[in-house]
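Hypothesis: this fold can be encoded by more than one sequence.
Test: take the structure tokens below, design a sequence, compare later.
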């Protein structure tokens, strides 16, 4: 009985000591936590960065824009301004996508389509605005295609994952019926991937390269030939007289059957008269 009481006493002392030790440890944790809260927020260490978070946020914040511009320019020397435009475009690492020369009687003009890197779009538009005699019209349009770009990107990713899944199923399939069905679905998926890749490339190209359309012309009615001076009027009258002469000659050429018939008739009449004169003599 004494041994049992002794053991009970030792166990009670041990339990009391253990509980006191735990209480002092908890007090240390709470005091450290309170000390940490006393530090101002500006001085507290930042949380550790998550890998890839900044890159993903930066990519998400980038907007995908398509820029298009239009310029109408009046020129005093069309060929010189045309050469200047080509030189500027080359200097901005752009290229001439298409051009059309229209040569009329009183006006000569160029229709130009230029592709330029998007980062140089604004500088090129401002520089081109100073070419020629006068800037008649200038317009610019910016289209935000971020959502379309992201949708195509996500669609391509999901379609390619589905393609890989079908390839895995095809490699594991042993039934001919299942293989035929999987191959049919796989071909459909690949066709959709090719179609979406084509759209994605076209959209990416429009984002990377902006389009500038230029209509530049020279009005010949304002040149020296058509001026209001006496020399200009004289040259204009000479030009119109020459045009009338050309029209008259062309009119006669159009009547060549009647002219030929008249000549033959005149020759026949002359011949008959000569014969009559010989008979009378």
């Amino acid at each position: 009985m004494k041994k049992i009481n002794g053991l009970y006493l030792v166990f009670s002392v041990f339990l009391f000591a253990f509980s006191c030790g735990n209480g002092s440890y908890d007090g240390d944790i709470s005091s450290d936590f309170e000390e940490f809260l006393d530090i101002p927020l500006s001085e507290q260490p930042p949380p550790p960065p998550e890998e890839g978070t900044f890159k993903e946020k930066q990519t998400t914040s980038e907007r995908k824009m398509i820029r298009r511009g239009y310029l109408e320019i009046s020129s005093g020397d069309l060929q010189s301004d045309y050469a200047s435009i080509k030189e500027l475009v080359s200097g901005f690492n752009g290229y001439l996508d298409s051009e059309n020369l229209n040569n009329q009687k009183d006006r000569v003009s160029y229709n130009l389509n230029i592709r330029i890197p998007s980062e140089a779009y604004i500088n090129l538009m401002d520089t081109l605005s100073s070419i020629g005699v006068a800037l008649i019209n200038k317009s610019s349009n910016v289209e935000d295609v971020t959502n379309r770009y992201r949708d195509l990107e996500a669609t391509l990713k999901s379609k390619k994952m589905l393609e890989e899944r079908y390839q895995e199923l095809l490699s594991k399939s042993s039934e001919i019926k299942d293989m035929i069905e999987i191959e049919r679905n796989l071909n459909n998926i690949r066709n959709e991937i090719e179609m979406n890749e084509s759209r994605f490339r076209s959209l990416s190209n429009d984002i990377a390269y902006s389009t500038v359309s230029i209509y530049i012309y020279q009005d010949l009615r304002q040149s020296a030939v058509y001026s209001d001076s006496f020399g200009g009027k004289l040259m204009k009258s000479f030009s119109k007289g020459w045009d009338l002469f050309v029209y008259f000659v062309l009119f006669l050429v159009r009547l060549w059957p009647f002219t030929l018939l008249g000549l033959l008739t005149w020759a026949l009449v002359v011949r008959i008269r000569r014969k009559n004169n010989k008979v009378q003599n």
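Residues 2-38 form the longest helix (37 residues). The two ends are 192 Å apart (CA to CA).
Hypothesis status: open.
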